[in-house]
Specification:
alpha+beta; 2 domains; 9-stranded mixed β-sheet
């Protein structure tokens, strides 16, 4: 049986006032400050995050960024307005300057999703001067730097208002493709949720993952911002898509069709070995998808026993690494072999 608990944030970690039992836990994060209403899952769902984000560590079914485990979250809802509805006027970049430089919002590199997230992770952004560091501000920061215009809620003052019919068209413009199919999500997509009073918005750091997506955003359980009465620092969570409202996908992030290369054959049982070089942020589920063409979570432990380190931990299987006292099965730069 679950309990409704009150938690608060110190250094980005949620401290709970009682033990968690049963299903999801509803936590209205407080500490004399107004925060978002976040429903954390009692069961962790392995997140998948794209390569290129700094500070990623993975192993034993967990993914961490800068030493902090990415929490699994069922829903997020702000407890106050996201933006002043009367303040939604277009913000143009100063003439002759790169978008954001010299304006009221900071310049952030949006050339790739990874560049934007690496530059903002752990930061605090209040681009409109209202209600401190809200999730809307983080999406607006991206819009202002990527498209040179603001992120509209169309008079609602709520993040979910930006995804409503009649408003999403205004936000999509010529720079974004709008979708209501969660399987379309790619890294860099601005993902919205329509639960609760105000909903939530953030930026995907990975692809659709069995009903979840890793999401960078503000006011979703990150550490306190200095002097803030509402909002919280940019962090990454693994959030359920059951309240998915839609996503704006930057057109320059959509992969362009390439000439079809020779297909990489899936691993054949007839092969004795297959070799792979581990990259930073790799997960065994992604490796299984690459070589087997599918992900079978029920077979993951057995699959891990067939992959053997030849460089960093010679002779050690990925499974042995998971269950060791270090709890690490994959090492960036290692050369691993699949052995029958």
């Amino acid at each position: 049986m679950s309990k409704k608990l009150i938690g608060y944030i110190i250094g980005g970690a949620v401290l709970l006032a009682a033990a968690i039992t049963g299903a999801a836990v509803n936590i209205n994060i407080e500490n004399g400050k107004v925060k978002a209403d976040i429903v954390y899952s009692a069961e962790s769902v392995t997140p998948e995050i794209t390569e290129g984000v700094d500070g990623i560590e993975s192993g034993r079914g967990e993914v961490k960024i800068n030493g902090e485990t990415i929490p699994t979250v069922e829903s997020v809802d702000a407890t106050g307005p996201q933006v002043n509805p009367e303040d939604e006027t277009p913000t143009e970049c100063p003439e002759g300057e790169e978008c954001g430089r010299g304006a009221t919002y900071p310049y952030v590199d949006t050339s790739t999703p990874q560049a934007f997230i690496n530059a903002t992770l752990g930061g605090c952004y209040d681009v409109d001067g209202h209600y401190n560091e809200q999730c809307w501000d983080y999406a607006a920061l991206f819009f202002l730097n990527y498209a040179g215009r603001t992120f509209y809620t169309c008079g609602t003052g709520a993040a979910k208002g930006a995804f409503a019919d009649g408003c999403w068209q205004k936000n999509a413009g010529n720079e974004f493709v709008f979708t209501t199919n969660p399987t379309d999500i790619i890294p860099g997509a601005i993902v919205g949720f329509n639960n609760g009073t105000f909903g939530h918005v953030g930026i995907a750091t990975g692809y659709y993952n069995n009903g979840y997506v890793t999401l960078a955003g503000q006011n979703q359980g990150g550490g306190l911002c200095p002097g803030s009465t509402m909002g919280a620092r940019v962090n990454v969570i693994n959030i359920s898509l059951k309240y998915f409202a839609g996503a704006f996908i930057p057109k320059t992030y959509i992969p362009r069709p390439q000439p079809s290369p020779e297909p990489t054959p899936a691993h054949s049982p007839a092969e004795d070995t297959i070799t792979y070089v581990v990259k930073r942020g790799d997960s065994l589920s992604a490796i299984m998808k690459r070589f087997e063409g599918t992900i079978d979570w029920n077979m993951m432990n057995d699959y891990a026993k067939h992959w053997v380190s030849t460089k960093i931990k010679p002779g050690q299987t990925v499974y042995e690494g998971w269950t060791s006292r270090f709890g690490v099965g994959l090492y960036a730069g290692d050369v691993i072999e699949y052995r029958k």
